[in-house]
Amino acid sequence: MLEILRGINVDWMQRRRIAYAVSGLAVLLSIGSLVLHGGPRYGVDFTGGTLMEVEIAPAPGVEAVRDVVTGVGVEGAEIQRLDRPGLYLIRMGTRAGVKDPSPSIRTALEQAMSDAVVTVHRVETVGPRVGSELRSAALNAIFLALGLILVYVAIRYDWRYSLGAIAALFHDVFIALGAVSITNREVTLTVVAAFLTIAGFSINDTIVVFDRIRERRQTMRRDPAEKVMNVAINETLSRTIITSLTVALTVVALFFFGGEVIHDFSFAMLVGVVFGTYSSVYVASALALETQLWLEGRGRKK
Hints:
Order of helices and strands: HHEHEEHEHHHHH
Strand order of the largest sheet: 2-3-1-4
Radius of gyration: 24 Å
Number of domains: 2
Structural class: alpha+beta
CATH superfamily of the largest domain: Multidrug efflux transporter AcrB transmembrane domain
Low-confidence stretches: none
Mean pLDDT: 83
CATH topology of the largest domain: Multidrug efflux transporter AcrB transmembrane fold
């Protein structure tokens, strides 16, 4: 295996309480954002409605686009200016008896801005019943995946490891959800796919570390648990950095060059990769150590 770090000897576990504070702060920020926003901001996929991505050149102001949309009878539409100049996202809720308003909006934009070129890149329409069913299915998929991972880790390792692994999974996915909420992004099907991918990435990284910890426990029986953990983490550090950096570079390329369709997916993935790498050491391994120390202390008392 390629090693970029040789002979490293970092005492990771000595700093675990600082990491607990960092994780606690990140979780609290995520909870605070979700409370302030009234929960996740679900996209059209889950709430039902019509989403229209339109490009207007030269670019008008957001209020000018809003006036046109309101003028065709669509009240309460959300207009969002995207990263590229002149690119707008128009979200409209579903109303009973109202047909898809996107053709009327396009015509109105062309008439109101006769000197501009109006290009519609995509239109997505989802009914409220379908959106509700998709939301339930997405939540079931996330919890089912996490539950099956819990069963896998519990079978492969003893319970003290499974607690740390599952805590790391929920930690990574929840912070990714919090980052999506803090940046006011929508939770869509692609973002849910990112959450599931983050769970897979996180548990893969954690299992690599746990495998080495289990090996070192056999060869370092007389050494303290902290030293065993540190040796195992240091020995897998090169693999962890190479894997995480490769994934991060790919996700960064998708974020900047992949287009608006997967922009939120790549953002959630980038947050998940960073915290997934961090949690393998300072959530999964640290909690496994805390459990080990608690069991040893309890055994000495008896």
